[in-house]
Design goal:
- There is one protein chain.
- The chain is mostly helical and 172 residues long.
- It has two domains: 69 residues, Arc Repressor Mutant, subunit A; 84 residues, no CATH class.
- It is built from eight helices and four strands.
- The protein has a two-stranded antiparallel sheet. The chain has a two-stranded antiparallel ribbon with strand order 3-4.
- Helix 2 packs across helix 3 and helix 3 crosses helix 4.
- The two termini are 29 Å apart.
Length: 172
């Protein structure tokens, strides 16, 4: 891993900040330091420190007039990438590997931010190939999943449409 990649790498807690900001914005229309701290059960000081790190990475910014925390375009892209990775990992572990749902949920949350963009794309293509392959007009029985990947042409298409999954708890 080169220096630039290491500097841009997100920690597990940074991912939770981004997802919380996204969730609060979707749910309430805004996210403030106070709201983020309450949602994550942290102090406002801890949240401010973390937000400064996310600002340095160009993922969040504060609106000058009202101090709302917002995701930048890069932050939005990162949230969609994270949610895509989590979704793919969850269904792969649950449906393809046979891991218990709670374990798949927890493990996908722990791994989501570690996948590179390239790996996420290849992972999508691999899962789609397995889930959408037909043999005599039927999906292969060993690779059935409740995640419908066949509707997406590309990994980018899938990532753009990710807003979270009803089975995945974004607020953990």
């Amino acid at each position: 891993m080169n220096t630039v990649e290491r500097e841009n790498e997100l920690s597990h807690s940074m991912v939770h900040y981004l997802l919380t900001i996204h969730k609060l914005k979707e749910k309430r229309g805004f996210a403030r330091v106070t709201d983020i701290a309450k949602d994550l059960n942290l102090t406002k000081g801890s949240v401010s420190t973390a937000l400064n790190n996310l600002k340095k990475k160009g993922l969040v910014e504060e609106e000058e007039d009202c101090k709302f925390v917002i995701l930048t375009d890069l932050g939005h892209e990162e949230v969609h990438r994270i949610l895509s990775s989590r979704t793919l990992l969850f269904y792969f572990l649950k449906d393809f590997v046979g891991v218990e749902e709670g374990v798949a949920e927890r493990d996908s949350c722990m791994m989501e931010h570690l996948m590179s963009h390239e790996t996420s794309e290849k992972f999508f293509e691999f899962m789609k190939m397995l889930a959408c392959s037909c043999k005599d007009g039927k999906k292969l029985p060993n690779f059935e999943t409740s995640l419908d990947l066949c509707d997406f042409k590309t990994a980018e298409d899938f990532m753009e449409k990710q807003e979270g999954d009803k089975y995945l708890k974004v607020d953990e």
